[in-house]
């Protein structure tokens, strides 16, 4: 589904991502992990075109997208939930969801009903402003907004950050349903190990901008956790 080949990225003179080789298999959930500051968010922003890359390729379903502008990437089937949610606080829930409708095919520009089935609280709060929602509700809105564009690949950057435990469990269940029942491919940055193990099929570990380990989720052992994840 998504292949990152030999990707290098710089902030000024600082080399932040080093020759990254990462594959996200179609129909599975891949979790990108590592301590704070190792380049996880930077990598997602490169995939979305929000940051330029110095060299390498980003290939989505066989098409090289590295040179495409950021605004065109959702049209190629990517839904993105950024770190910190970044919903529009002064717009209503419904207006936040409607932002993605122009990406959908003409004649199919309605908010899909299954989104309200996944997030019933949003249907109850359609006319409330996004800024009036709790943190957990805002995160659900951010995921729903990404789904409105009808993606084949869903990218989430730390969706559990600052979220109360009961909503974390709901988000895990929703990601599992999207991935395992609806066949949506998922690329996820996550720090919480129980969450990552529940939703993930595969993992990649980053350290100082380099991919240092990868495997099926069951292969994420205590040695790797101590070396690359424990603070």
Detailed description of the structure:
- This protein is α/β, with parallel strands linked by helices.
- 30% of the residues lie in helices and 26% in strands.
- Helix 6 links the parallel strand 7 and strand 8.
Summarize the structure.
The protein contains eight helices and ten strands.
Spatial strand sequence of the major β-sheet:
6-7-8-3-9-10
Query: What is the element string, with H for helices and E for strands?
Result: EEEHEEEHHHHEHEHEEH
- Write down the overall mean pLDDT: 94
Share of helix, binned: 25-40%
Main sheet?
Answer: 6 strands, mixed
Low-confidence stretches: none
| Amount of beta strand | 25-35%
Question: Please, how many helices?
Answer: 8
Quaternary state of the chains:
single chain
Number of strands: 10
What's the Cα radius of gyration? 17 Å
Distance separating the two termini: 32 Å
Structural class: alpha/beta
């Amino acid at each position: 589904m998504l292949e990152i080949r030999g990707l290098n990225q710089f902030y000024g003179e600082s080399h932040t991502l080093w020759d990254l080789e990462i594959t996200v298999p179609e129909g599975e959930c891949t979790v990108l992990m590592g301590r704070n500051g190792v380049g996880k968010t930077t990598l997602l922003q490169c995939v979305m075109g929000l940051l330029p890359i110095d060299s390498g390729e980003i290939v989505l379903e066989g098409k090289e997208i590295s040179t495409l502008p950021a605004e065109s990437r959702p049209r190629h089937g990517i839904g993105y939930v950024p770190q910190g949610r970044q919903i529009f606080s002064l717009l209503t829930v419904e207006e936040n969801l409607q932002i993605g409708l122009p990406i959908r095919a003409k004649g199919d520009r309605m908010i899909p009903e299954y989104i309200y089935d996944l997030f019933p609280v949003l249907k109850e709060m359609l006319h409330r402003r996004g800024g009036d929602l709790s943190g957990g509700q805002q995160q659900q809105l951010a995921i729903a907004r990404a789904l409105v564009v009808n993606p084949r690949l869903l990218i989430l950057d730390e969706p559990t950050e600052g979220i109360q435990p009961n909503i974390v469990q709901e988000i895990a269940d929703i990601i599992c349903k999207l991935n395992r029942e609806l066949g949506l491919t998922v690329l996820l940055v996550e720090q919480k190990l129980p969450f990552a193990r529940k939703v993930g099929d595969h993992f990649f570990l980053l350290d100082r901008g380099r991919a240092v380990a990868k495997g099926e989720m069951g292969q994420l052992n205590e040695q790797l956790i101590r070396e690359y994840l424990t603070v």
